[in-house]
Amino acid sequence: MMGIFTSIKNAIWGEKKEAAQPATAPAPAPAAAPAAAPAPAAAPAAPAEPEPLTEAQLHAHIAALPDADKFNWQTSIVDLMKLVGLDPSFDNRKELADELGMTDYQGTAEQNIALHHAVMNLLALEGGKVGGMLAD
To answer: What is the DSSP string of 28-63?
Structure first.
């Protein structure tokens, strides 16, 4: 089952698709030739470290979503959820808070601000390496 945060993340960053491996027939054996020593297998290259994601880049990415200008997603968890097509009901916000480790969520303004802050931090992590921005 997909969680609320995963739904938000996928709506903003897109779902990660597995690269399809095309099915290929084995290559025919080459004609006999003098045997040469096989080259050592190259170690897989380490993935490149992503550039730090700035707060401006995160905001620009979300602002580019359709109808983003109709919502106050920059500060409101309710509007952020509406922007990505999720029901921002208390039950869904409580489930999101539980997913993020927030206890005793009652839906107060302070808790909604903290929930929005936590979601934005995690979205920044999903979009790239966070360079110390949006930290508590």
So the answer is: PPPPP----PPPPPPPPPPPPPPPEEPHHHHHHHHH
Q: Which two tokens stand for residue 128?
A: 């790239």
pTM over 0.90: no
Amino acid, res. 60: A
pLDDT in tens, 6-61: 899 888 877 654 333 334 444 444 455 455 555 555 555 555 555 546 778 888 98
| Interacting residues of 120 by C-beta distance below 8 A, sequence separation 6+ | 58, 134
Place of tokens 């620009």: 60
Helix (H) / strand (E) element for 67: namely: none
